[in-house]
Amino acid sequence: MSKGTLFDKVWNLHTVGTLTSGQTQLFIGLHLIHEVTSPQAFAMLHERELKVLFPERTVATVDHIVPTENQARPFADVLAEEMIVALEDNCKAHNIRFYNVGSGRQGIVHVIAPEQGLTQPGMTIACGDSHTSTHGAFGAIALGIGTSQVRDVLASQTLALSKLKVRKIEVNGTLNPGVYAKDVVLHLIRKLGVNGGVGYAYEYAGTTFEQMSMEERMTVCNMAIEGGARCGYINPDRITFDYLKGREFAPKGEEWDQAVEWWTSIRSDADAEYDDVMVFDAADIAPTVTWGITPGQGIGINETIPTPEELSDSDRAIAQEAYRYMKLNPGDRIAGTKVDVCFVGSCTNGRISDLREAAKFAKGRQVAPGIKAFIVPGSEEVKKQAEAEGLDKVFLEAGFEWRESGCSMCLAMNPDKLQGSQISASSSNRNFKGRQGSSEGRTLLMSPAMVVAAAINGVVSDVRELL
Predict the structure, then answer these.
(1) Per-residue pLDDT for 1 more than 70?
(2) Residue 98: phi, psi to the nearest 5?
(3) CB 269 within 8 A of CB 262
(4) Terminal CA-to-CA distance of the chain, rounded, Å?
(5) Residue set of the binding site for [4Fe-4S] cluster
(6) What does the alpha-carbon distance between residue 351 and residue 362 come to, in Å, rounded to a whole number?
(7) Residue 466 pLDDT > 80, yes or no?
């Protein structure tokens, strides 16, 4: 095994060759597909009379367009029904494993692959979805790709890519109570900027990440893309191995021992050289809320919305746009901002540990009058597990709606949408204009626990006051 970073080791091991463009032809070990970016890619294959080269390396599910209230077929949305039918037909035609609604394994693509043990250290993973960086939590190079690249992977199991630089982001120390992985990644994006990672892979390192569970690590890597990085990863360790052991697609018996030995060997070496290193202190991170229209426009719960004078020249123009769109005033406190809708779910925060933490704060409390609050499990398996633990009853008794699995209001390609200029407290990953289904809708990103605190109080609130 060559010396260096995990990124270098995995990249080199998967390099097929160097193209005349100077790009690397990179072999993709696992290709995840869903109903939104795959139909056009399959159509391009069919036009060229090509087959899927390695169907056993492709896994499909349906997530973006599925309704979370009533999943009876055919879907009420005609376009959504057409998209799921296209995926069903393409998977059948090419012998691709498909986790459909009602299979017990359907869910958000970035939730189901880890829970099935499909995502493993040292892999190259691609999916036609920007938040594919999630899988880097396992020590994989996981890349979101476009529709034409989905076609390329289906046809050749490779991608043409320029090699990235590697930035090590080190966070050390223990997080304070009420501060979560979501707060960590929002803090990092705030400090480094939404374009700070362009051209980079982010290696998250330090004692803070070492203490995190796998699901917390997935939250961090999920939003690497929001900081401009092409991918983010964490070196695999005992926590990674314990999470994977026994899962359906994880190695078994002697193969398990060999896999752990190899996974350990691909970790970044102690003397690995990085293109850049940034160091942060966990003690400096507070519960964080976005106030603007990019994930980088975030502040601690006790801070005020920055004034133009406090911002750099480069940040001032987008801030002015954000003040107007969000109808929030510079200098105002973010705490106390009225909310209309509270959403816990998405590929960032729809896993079982997210729901457990949210339920702790919902238990014995009531959603404020006039607030629409709902919980969307990230997969059918998460839903089943949550119900076995009685979490659904906790949420229902508190006045939350309990839904079926899907992407839901993260991007509103389904019936879950904001209306008019409603403000949403959301555990999802993007607060762009119109992201949650209304051209005037406003999104405040925060941790699931903070979403529950907002639902209980009817305003953006410091979850630490509920501890």
Answers:
(1) no
(2) -130, 120
(3) no
(4) 47
(5) 347, 407, 410
(6) 17
(7) yes
